[in-house]
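lol so apparently i was supposed to do this last week
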Amino acid sequence: MKLSRRGFMKWTGAGAAALSLSRLGFDVKPVAAYATTLRIAGAKEVVSICPFCSCGCNIIMFVKDGKFISSEGDPDYPVSEGALCPKGAAFHSMHVSHHRILKPRYRAPGSDKWEEKDWDFVLDRIARKVKDTRDKDFVEKNDKGLTVNRVETLFQLGTSQMDNEECAVSHQMLRSLGVVYLDHQARV
Ligand code: SF4
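anyway here it is w/ iron/sulfur cluster bound
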């Protein structure tokens, strides 16, 4: 019989617990009945990857009736063996949190209120700001007369949710603008 580490843990854990409790004279039937009413009972398990850093820990997502209802680490993943740091452990709670922002927000200069905007608005605004800043601050030569072609007033901090290809394209685009300051959350 081919058994994954996850399957083995479920199988031996449940068997050992039931055996020890029943040896002590406990009736384990109610526990077994309770287990079948757990929230994830009957849910489909989908293995995904945590997007929050480059460790890329596997996360098992439980999907029931088309909804993502819970998540946990994957014991079969060789790097973390089922462990997750607080960010990965909070994967499902972040997904359903009422604090989660689903649309771009904009706070106008001098305003104390955030307004919901569409993506066209924010992308146009970012493009305008980048163009104006580059036009204003582009440095062609440094103090020694050497050609540098750079802009030092723009900075980009990348997200760990970007894959290698997205990082490569983003990096090329920024370098072509003359941006010299860029960093990435996932460069651990
Ligand atoms: S953020 Fe945590 S759980 Fe997610 S990949 Fe990194 S170490 Fe793993």
